[in-house]
Request: fold
Amino acid sequence: MTRDTRRDPRYDVLFEPVAIGPVTAKNRFYQVPHCNGMGYRDPTALAHMRGVKAEGGWAVVCTEQVEFHHTSDITPFIELRLWDDRDVPMLARMADRVHEFGALAGIELAYNGVNGPNLHTREVPMAPTGMPVASFTYDPVQARTMDKQDIRNLRRWHRAAALRARKAGFDLVYVYAGHALTFLHHFLSKRYNHRTDEYGGSLENRVRLLREVLIDTREAVGDACAVPCRLSIDEMLGPDGLEKAEVEDMIGLLAELPDLWDVALAPWENDSQTSRFGPEGRQEPFIEGVKKLTTKPVVGVGRYTSPDRMVSVVNKGLADLIGCARPSIADPFLPKKIEEGRFEDIRECIGCNICVSGDFTMSPIRCTQNPTMGEEWRKGWHPERIRAKASDKPVLVVGAGPAGLEAAQALGKRGYEVTLAEKGTALGGRVSRECRLPGLSAWARVRDYREQQLHKLANVQVYFDSGLDADAVMEFGFPRIVVATGARWRKDGVGHQWTRPMPVADGARVLTPDDVMDGTLPDGGCVIVWDDDHYYMGGLMAEVLAEKGCETHYLTPACEASTWTRNTMEQPFIQARLLEMGVKIHAFANLDAVSEGGITASCVFTGQTEEVEADAVVLVTSRAPEDRLARDLKARAADWPDAGIESVVTIGDALAPATIAHAVYAGRRYAEELDGPPVTGDEVPFKRELVELSAEG
Ligand code: ADP
Ligand code: SF4
Reply:
């Protein structure tokens, strides 16, 4: 093996090849299967997204779960499909794209069984034991118990899918038995498998079907493909679920049958836990010991972004391959950057799970750190490349939050002369404030990556203490102005419930998250947090106040705390944390008015009101754009030509407050589109694929 001279020898171990059955991974960077909300609806976009990872140096790039038979669909979620030969070209496109860059392509064959209500196909779901389907939405559908013929059929269907996967060009054909999302997991689990035949009861019996499917798959694909097995090492349910000791016994029984063991926690929210609730490498205690049970390579995940931590995973013998989903989304070029010793260029995942929300909202994956994610094909964006500038006209970016920072660094990389003016004394805007809230320290990486990039760009000048007004901007005379001045939390209660200001008595003690983040907290007493925003901030405010010793009441018109965080899989952890901290959660509660000594709340259903005493109220409802500068500049549009101004564009929260991911995206979009074809709004600004109409119309 020739070693790249730029690489620190400390990291050589990460670039050793690993044999996986009949195929060889060229290094230890392994993109484990991950969902992305694109699936069968956006197959070419998906193929290109995976291809960019292969280009970035990942040795193995896998699909998401792929439905392999029409009797189990996972609607409304949008994953890939391999129901018959007609689906092969769609999958082949992805495998080809991955091969183009010298990586191995893996496919995760999935049959959701009791996990899917079959909303699309209307088939009756099948399970080891009939019971209500275990979907996210409590669907009023039950699965039926599989008989022996069903088991034989399912084996045949899996085998047929493996053959199709081989035909599509995949190098690794997964037998998926993890995350409580697939029939093989259900057969392993006493929770789902109450059978009294040879497929239920004892450990050997529950493992039987997995053994058979592993053998079937091996026979089907022969020496053309590796057969990895993905298994959940623990369901974190105590004795009610699969636990490490029992799963290790299962692995012991099947030790040499698969070509690779891919082990992770279940369910998915434990596997892909956010940084707010779990650190890098959190799964290591669970993975530990698996390698002793088999001679086959082991892959484990842990939101690894630190090359030293990766090296320790291998050196400590925890795993042979560094499994990554989110770190590969945030930085598809992570392996290449480590190989080239460009550590400061690594765009580290912040562990926010906005990527996961794509799957949960059935929309194409997006990433807070990597605004090109999901746009590789439809807009032609690339995480590491951006076309050169098309003019010499300099750009003034006002505001150094996520939007302004991303615009400045991306414009800088295009070669434009950029001036970034920031009112405060630090970069990062909201990110620098929010990363000081409990559990959000990793969010500072949004700022840190961009700050690092700016250091390297001699054509970008940053000025602090530069709160600009329209006069100043007009005087500078930059031809292009980007206004990225952010937003502030509203104090008037406008949000989802109140679309106009709510009644707030003079003298009422009302605070916003900005006040709390600035250190203005009630001294104690009883505090009400009214959360009509529903993402993370309301829950965090309650956490901060409870920590300070306030008697904290959390009110929400929704059914639960921070309800949108269902999409980032954090909701159960947030609610548990608040309850454990003694926060009283009041669901289905509207806030009708704030008085001097308390509030009037009402039931969202009956309207019945209640007076509640409180020393202070924290309103977490919505944010108002800081758009004074933008408005003032617009009002003087007639003077722009004299001042040498061609365009003023408002981006990010200053235009319309949303997530940090939205702001970063807005910054990137400005930079990508500058001096490009005009975007009039009359045409769809991206490529898309349309369903081919049947000839039998
Ligand atoms: P976004 O998420 O859209 O990037 P942020 O609120 O995080 O927005 O960041 C906005 C940044 O703009 C903050 O750092 C703020 O200090 C800065 N800012 C706001 N108004 C001005 C101004 N008039 N001149 C310069 N900087 C400003
Ligand atoms: Fe990481 Fe957040 Fe990007 Fe997902 S969206 S990859 S968690 S930074």
